[in-house]
Amino acid sequence: MNAATRYVETSKTNSPVHAYVADHGRGVSKSDIEQTTVAGRSITLSTDVDTDDQNLIADGIQATNPTEKECFANALRMWKHNSRLKYVEGFAAMNGLDAGGFEHAWCLLDGEHLVDPTTASFDHYYGVVIDDPEILHRYAEECPHEGILGNHKDRYAFLRDRGYVD
Question: How much is the pTM?
């Protein structure tokens, strides 16, 4: 079991965000990803991404210019650039750091291959694909830096609509 999966499963009662991710997410382990450089940016990428898809990712990175510490906005911009990049929110963890998981956003190319345009720091991921275009467009326009699941500015509307918040 990867560190992010373990974190999510053991922290399910910590918050509605944790509960939703635990109920609907899936993990990606260190053995399936690599820290690499694409279009001059250090990112995390699934090891099985082919050259054509790496070119698509490079094009997305050049077009969206990801910024450090803006994972939600970066992942939303990548999704807007190319809908093959599915938007994911959840938790990521680092080997050797006993801090549990960090709330984070990334993409899955075609819903399968991890693309983290923000950082090459995390070793394990556990998250949920959010694929409702109306929701994604609204958050991309209104509050891209807040994310969708843990967005307190809208009083957790996404989780409320799904019965995770009263």
Answer: 0.95
